[in-house]
Amino acid sequence: MSRDPVAGLLAVARRRRIAIVLALALPWLPAVAACTWRWQGAAAAGVATAAAAILIAALAWRSARALDSRWLQRRLDAAHPALEDSSALLSTRAASLSPLALLQRERVLQRLPSPDAAGMRFPWPRARIAAGAVLAIALTAAALLWPPQPPQPSRAVDAVATPAAADAGPGALQLLEHTLGITPPAYTGLPPRSGSALDARVPEGAVLAWQLRFAPMPASVALEFLDGRRIALRREGDDWRGEATASTPGLYRIVATSPLPWADDTLYRIDVARDRPPSIRVIAPAQNLSLRTPAQRHWTLAFEAGDDHGIAASAEMHLTMTEGSGENIGFRDEVRRLTGRGDRHLKRFEHRLDLDGLGLVEGDDLIVHFVVRDNRAGRAQSTRSASHILRWPPPQARADSGIDGVLQRVLPAYFSSQRQIIIDAEALIAGQPRMRPEAFAAGSDSIAVDQRLLRLRYGQFLGEESEGAPAGPGADTAAAAEDLPPPPMLLPTNDAEDEAEAWRDMVAAQAEDGPARTAGDAHARGDDAHGHDHDHGDGAAASTGTEAASAGFGVAGDVLEEFGHTHDIPEAATLLDPKTRSLLRRALGEMWQSELALRQARPRDALPPANRALALVKEIQQADRIYLARTGTALPPVDFSRRLGGEREGITSRRHGLVPATMDDDVPAAVWRALGPQAAAAAGDGPADGVSPADLAALQAWLSANEARVEDPLSLLAAVDAFARDPGCDDCRQHLRGLLWPLVTPPPAAPAPRTAADGVGRAYLDALRGERSE
């Protein structure tokens, strides 16, 4: 027995588990190798076998790691009652056990069975192992005995095969060897390469070198492109050589002059990869507009530039600094070169500007943009980044400059709300013990200004033009209302209107006839309650006779019409219904009370009316209907200088862009219709009706001018050439028609003609005619 009997038993169990997993899985390795070799080749078979071996080893290791000390304790306690469920003591250090536990541990060690008796050597699953081995051997044999697939012929160009591209016979000119060498431009950093394939994808500006060998020797050899280019090859010994610079993509075929026939008219394809301009990604600053702080001394700039073939080692940083303001503004430009870090395809540029060294002052702007170039020799492409601005805000205008009537606070009128006014007042009350009386009064007055601006915003819906007398008697009798109990708070669900009316009666009784006398004096001076100094005519003074007698006595509306001054004319202010307007008047009155208390540095007394105003505003927001003002249309003035002048510049038809006059100018559509089955049937064995060499030439010219609209122009050009060489080839016709279909301009939508009436419809129409004749 080893020093650690538990570890010994666990090792025996793990070895047996690994052996069982390997016995079940290893017979499948030859099957995987044979199947992959048959259908994918020897290289793929080696990769698949290695991957399968790694997977089997991982499964065996994971299966063995699943057997741990806890599993061993449960197995021993369940299979051997003599251990008295104390096998856990074997995994515990002896120094940490009590004397009684040590005694029990010694008893368990004495009764611990051997690995065979303990069941650590699992029985072999012979049936599963035998079945798996038989299936794996059968699969391996089937893969090895399966007949090999014939090799698939490779095609050089994705185009329609023509009958002229058949294999040359023994009495024809044959191409024995062909090589295409490609030398990319030096700035790309790509190595030269060569191969037997005559079609290739090359970078723009690459030098192509052809080397051909024929048997027997022809008289002349040339490469003819479908776009009209021709490259004549020169003879050097037994080979024909030629070179050209790849500037545009194209399709070409080999043309040889010889007494023997040359039957190979295969099209070969040269794709040209355009050199893309470099890209810029600005890292810092993150936003296009940054504001300079007084403590800021530097401005960090960083950006990354990348290119497909290589970026230049240096970049340009253009600085534009503004000086002055208004009509005296000036500009200073400066260009600095930056050196980047990184490889040739991706570089990072960083720079730290010294703002004090640039001479910026308050009110100036610093505008920066970057320019990077690639390493293309002679014709470098450049990219400019977006402009980034560092603005030093000008000094704020002082409110105590003596022009208080000109400088006005605008932001509170847009950002202050009634709830915010309440929050500010509560915060001011909470901080009163820590504030001086002057600061407390100034804070209360600032909140009163916000309350005034908010009141004016709501008052404009009732026609108020200035901040004259408060709407209602509460503002004129504020001093008398100080001793009264606070008015009740009217929530949207509160129906205590009687209580509010009683409070208003108390205020009116205490004021007695003061407001009426004040109003009379104001009317005698020609001023209204809103502080206006304009006259409304003499109609009010002359209406004391019969018109006053005919009017209803004591009606508030008539009194207001005769003696008052109202701006909420029904024809001009009809946005709100009467109920909402009543709520708005009450809210404005509460705002007056709140502003009055805040002006007197009594924010505690301002909270109750402010809360009531908030409740009324929330109720106004729930208004279910608004009325829009009845206003007429405002048409632009007529330009009489253009009338009856006969000038038609700028005048287009209303049908322009909706229904084109004709579709004949759509070349792909015309050729597509001519290639249809009806045209082919009418043509018979001859050329297709309507498809002439001129039409195909027009299609090629349209393709040259509209390459951006075609996904693969070379494939379409190859299909046109194949059909032109064999007009009777139905496969060539269908292939070309399929490539033209995505290029056809869809016709505009047109109304469907009215269908003929059925029997019921004709009877109905006859009945209508009969009634009309009667």
Task: Characterize the structure shown.
This is Membrane protein. Keywords: Membrane, Transmembrane, Transmembrane helix. The protein has 5 domains: 5-145, no CATH class; 163-273, Immunoglobulins (Immunoglobulin-like), CATH 2.60.40; 284-391, Immunoglobulin-like, CATH 2.60.40; 415-532 and 561-621, no CATH class; 667-743, no CATH class. The chain is built from 25 helices and 19 strands. A hairpin with a 2-residue loop joins strand 6 (230-236) and strand 7. It is α+β, with helices and mostly antiparallel strands. Helix 2 packs antiparallel against helix 3 (42-65) and helix 2 (28-40) runs parallel beside helix 7 (126-145). The strands form 3 sheets. The protein has a 9-stranded mixed beta sheet, covered by helices on one side. Strands 11, 13, 14, 17, 18 and 19 form a 6-stranded mixed beta sheet that branches. A 4-stranded antiparallel beta sheet has the order 10-12-16-15. 18% of the residues are buried.
Which structural traits does this protein have?
Immunoglobulin-like; 40% helix; 16% strand; 9-stranded mixed sheet
Short description:
With 774 residues, the protein is an alpha+beta fold. Helices cover 40% and strands 16% of the residues. It contains 25 helices and 19 strands.
Number of strands: 19
State which percent range the strand residues make up. 15-25%
Our count of domains comes out at 5
Main sheet strand line-up: 2-1-4-7-6-5-8-9-3
N→C terminal distance:
126 Å
Please tell me how large the radius of gyration is. Answer: 49 Å
3D shape: extended
The structure class reads: alpha+beta
Main β-sheet, in a few words?
9 strands, mixed
Please count the helical segments: 25
Overall average residue pLDDT: 75
Q: Uncertain regions: pLDDT < 50 for 5+ in a row? A: 150-167, 397-415, 468-486, 488-499, 510-557, 559-574, 656-663, 685-689
**Fraction of residues in H or I helices:** 25-40%
Biased composition (Low complexity): 468-483
Keywords: Membrane, Transmembrane, Transmembrane helix
Protein name: Membrane protein
Organism: Luteimonas terricola
